[in-house]
Specification:
Layout lengths: L21 H10 L21 E2 L3 H6 L17 H9 L1 H9 L14 H23 L3 E2 L4 H20 L12 H24 L2 E6 L5 E9 L2 E9 L3 E5 L2 E8 L6 E2 L15 H16 L7 E7 L13 E2 L7 E2 L7 H15 L6 E2 L13 H4 L2
Parallel strand pairs: 7-9, 8-10
Antiparallel strand pairs: 1-12, 2-3, 3-6, 4-5, 6-7, 10-11
Length: 378
């Protein structure tokens, strides 16, 4: 009799069990013979992937021209704090994302992940205060304004934000699915808490909310082809004037630490606990002062961590703090500006330095969630 070979995989992926199907088991019974089982291995090549290094030849350097400001004061694009953070995490990742324009795979998801939730929280707050200013014809929020905001305006702001975010503005009677209804309830708790914190610190005057104003700056750096001006820009979630200071507020959905030992640590890629949020909110100080050069008020970076706001002693301000020492609150970015600019300049000059290639990070922890890890084989 002819030989019969039946093959099945032992890999249990895509929801399959990794064992013989009922079909194979039935065939074996019906054939009524002894079956010999044999396991076939596919040898896996365990060679480590080659390191990837992009040298900055003329072609690669020319990709960086888009950030340079021309004689008309224009640039094609600008460095954002997140682009600089990516460069500090991994030079190759910066090259892939911002210069080679390899976009990460867009996962279309019904799930509401942390990033989407954070965006909805931002947008809801922006709408809440923007609509308030329109209704009242003023930008100052007094303590007495909050009772009405709490009671009547949180829910409509969230509804409006969800519709705007998912482009549902026209569809008047779209019913939100179960998960969105849960998210809406959680958003409501967050907004109530932000309002509670704001009420305690009122009065304050809104200067700008996220979408209203783009803040920009130019930074002079040295490159092989002489002095250049690079363009920097950022979107500040909220700028307000409070107790004689201008607060530069960033809403964060994570648990970002607000302490940093000193300014150079913010630009040190070897520093495992480099404070990205502090680097970012200091960046806001630089671009705010550059956009509003007449500003004479202290600039106070602040981080509203959505997860931390429910604590009793919530403090949104940055602190310069060495381990086991008492911290000093950052009351004015301008006291740090010289040192911050120097760190930023050094970072930029590294980006434009032809001798310093776009190579992979040594810290493999950074690769765990990197969208480009398949390219690197890490």
């Amino acid at each position: 009799a002819d030989e019969v070979h039946m093959i099945y995989t032992t890999a249990s992926d895509q929801g399959k069990a990794g064992e013989k199907s009922r079909y194979i088991q039935q065939m074996a019974v019906e054939l009524g013979r002894e079956m010999e089982e044999e396991v076939i291995f596919i040898p896996i090549d365990q060679k480590s992937p080659e390191a990837i290094t992009i040298q900055k030849d003329q072609e690669v350097l020319s990709l960086l021209d888009k950030y340079l400001i021309d004689e008309h004061g224009q640039s094609k694009t600008s460095f954002s704090p997140s682009a600089l953070s990516v460069f500090l995490d991994c030079k190759l990742k910066f090259y892939l994302q911002y210069l080679a324009n390899i976009q990460e795979k867009e996962e279309v998801s019904e799930e509401i992940d942390a990033a989407v939730f954070g965006n909805l929280a931002h947008l809801s707050m922006e709408i809440l205060y923007q609509d308030f200013a329109k209704r009242k014809g003023r930008s100052v929020l007094e303590k007495g304004d909050f009772a009405e905001l709490h009671k009547a305006w949180i829910f409509p702001a969230i509804e409006k934000a969800i519709r705007k975010f998912y482009h549902l503005e026209e569809e008047a009677d779209t019913k939100l699915n179960g998960q969105m209804a849960i998210a809406r309830d959680v958003l409501q708790k967050y907004l109530q808490q932000i309002l509670k914190i704001d009420e305690e610190s009122a009065p304050f005057k809104l200067i700008s909310l996220e979408q209203e104003k783009k803040y920009k700056a130019a930074l002079k750096i040295n490159t092989v082809s002489g002095e250049e001006l690079v363009s920097l820009k950022g979107i500040i979630d909220r700028v307000d004037e409070h107790n004689g200071s201008v607060r530069l507020i960033d809403y964060k959905s994570g648990q970002d630490n607000k302490t940093f030992p000193d300014i150079p640590s913010l630009f040190n890629r070897e520093n495992k606990s480099r404070n990205k949020a502090a680097m970012q909110t200091m960046f806001y100080g630089l671009i705010y002062q550059a956009t509003v050069p007449e500003n004479m008020l202290p600039l106070k970076p602040a981080i509203f961590n959505l997860r931390e706001m429910f604590g009793d002693d919530f403090n949104p301000y940055l602190q310069e703090k060495l381990p086991r020492k008492v911290g000093v609150e950052v009351n004015d970015y301008r006291q740090y500006e010289e040192e911050y600019r120097a760190g930023l300049k050094e970072l930029m000059e590294d980006i434009y330095n032809p001798e310093s290639p776009f190579d992979q990070t040594e810290d493999l922890k950074k690769c765990e969630y990197c969208p480009y890890k398949e390219i690197c084989g890490r």
